């Protein structure tokens, strides 16, 4: 099976231009390609992770990835798939996020001379002269065609600013610069990026040559990444300080039955033959498949040691086997308790990070009925946990099936 055939078999490819040329390039390890990452936060998330896995697959076959961080485009904000305008960030915020991305990407992709590269489009976008850019680049775009682009559909209903409207020009210019400066012939992205990607190809061919060798491929995986990786508490981040390895493991351990084999194909490096065998699994065997998925992905993101700890913690909580030491814990001090040596359940949920606010905590208790302390379901938002009721090994606080914390008394508790 060729690499191109494997990507198809794993369900990664949706649509593309120049299929024959794309297959030949990547199968022979001759492609230089890029994927863009706008640094709108200080951590990569699961959607980015899917793109990074694709880069890793292609690099393992000899192809050369370019990770384009959008230090320039992040100052505009991609309108694709959004119903409102993104929050404006300062240059300092963007630059900080870019550095966070650089560090995280290095855990997945092999960067260095002759290998992968990290490129920041701030290098050419931030100092652009507006009039020169409009004359050279803006003149190549037809507004009527742009207004039909899928990336603007949602924003057209609520009001599209000219700032956001210019995003297609900026992303297209990125490909133009990468093609000229780095020999990049290929771009990858999700189906919400298709119009922007075609804009880049058209710009290259108009400015350079109708025969300019610019290819594009559209990936179903990145579109899936926007659908998943979301929880009631926000995004599934790759930074362990923002989303604990145990929670990351639990997220994948609890995917829908219908999705587990799809994710195993798309996101792991397990042989397809092994995954195909799981197609025959039913009932409790699907839970085994989910555990395999959770372990593989946690190991890729956080390392094998953290994957083993998360697996052990899950078994301790749900199967009653092993130690609870690997369950994420939160330490309570004397300041957390009232004069009666108690802490109310809402304050406890905020302390453990299982609720971002008191109102969210109250809703989880009285409306969602998703909170348990130890083995007891809690429906009273005035309930208090007493200091003397917290065992030495800790007390489990559960929010639903996936969000679990252990509270322990600190040395000053």
TrEMBL record:
Residues annotated as signal peptide: none
Motif stretch ('KMSKS' region): 227-231
Compartments in which it is found: Cytoplasm
Catalytic activity as recorded in UniProt: tRNA(Tyr) + L-tyrosine + ATP = L-tyrosyl-tRNA(Tyr) + AMP + diphosphate + H(+)
Binding sites annotated in the UniProt record for ATP: 230
Motif ('HIGH' region): 39-48
Sites where the protein binds L-tyrosine: 34, 167, 171
Highest taxon of source: Bacteria
The protein's assembly and partners: Homodimer.
Its biological purpose: Catalyzes the attachment of tyrosine to tRNA(Tyr) in a two-step reaction: tyrosine is first activated by ATP to form Tyr-AMP and then transferred to the acceptor end of tRNA(Tyr).
Protein name: Tyrosine--tRNA ligase
Organism: Bilifractor porci
């Amino acid at each position: 099976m060729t690499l191109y055939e494997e990507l198809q078999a794993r369900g990664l490819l949706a649509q593309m231009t120049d299929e024959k040329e794309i297959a030949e390039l990547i199968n022979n390890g001759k492609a230089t390609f890029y994927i863009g990452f706008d640094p709108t936060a200080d951590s990569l998330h699961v959607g980015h992770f899917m793109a990074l896995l694709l880069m890793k697959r292609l690099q393992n076959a000899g192809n050369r990835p370019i990770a384009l961080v959008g230090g320039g485009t992040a100052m505009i904000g991609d309108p694709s798939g959004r119903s409102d305008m993104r929050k404006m960030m300062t240059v300092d915020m963007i630059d900080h996020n870019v550095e966070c991305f650089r560090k995280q990407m290095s855990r997945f992709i092999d960067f260095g001379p002759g290998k992968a590269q990290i490129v920041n489009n701030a290098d050419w976008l931030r100092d652009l002269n507006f009039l020169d850019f409009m004359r050279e680049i803006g003149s190549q775009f037809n507004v009527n065609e742009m207004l039909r682009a899928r990336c603007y559909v949602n924003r057209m209903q609520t009001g599209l600013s000219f700032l956001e409207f210019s995003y297609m020009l900026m992303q297209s210019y990125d490909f133009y610069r990468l093609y000229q400066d780095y020999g990049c012939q290929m771009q990858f992205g999700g189906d919400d990026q298709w119009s922007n990607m075609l804009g880049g190809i058209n710009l290259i061919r108009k400015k350079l040559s109708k025969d300019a060798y610019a290819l594009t491929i559209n990936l179903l995986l990145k579109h899936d990444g926007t659908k998943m990786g979301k929880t009631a508490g926000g995004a599934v981040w790759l930074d362990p300080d923002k989303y604990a390895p145990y929670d990351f493991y639990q997220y994948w351990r609890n995917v829908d039955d219908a999705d587990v084999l799809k994710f195993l194909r798309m996101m792991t490096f397990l042989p397809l033959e092994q995954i195909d065998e799981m197609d025959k699994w039913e009932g409790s065997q699907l839970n085994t498949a989910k555990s395999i998925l959770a372990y593989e992905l946690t190991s890729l993101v956080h390392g094998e040691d953290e994957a083993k700890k998360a697996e052990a913690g899950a078994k301790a909580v749900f199967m009653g086997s092993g130690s609870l030491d690997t369950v994420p814990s939160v330490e309570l001090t004397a300041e957390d308790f009232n004069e009666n040596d108690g802490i109310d359940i809402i304050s406890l949920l905020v302390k453990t990070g299982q609720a971002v606010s008191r109102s969210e905590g109250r809703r989880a208790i009285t409306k969602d009925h998703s909170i348990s302390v130890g083995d007891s379901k809690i429906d009273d938002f005035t309930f208090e946990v007493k200091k003397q009721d917290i065992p030495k090994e800790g007390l489990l606080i559960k929010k639903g099936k996936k969000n679990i914390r252990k509270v322990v008394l600190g040395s000053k508790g």
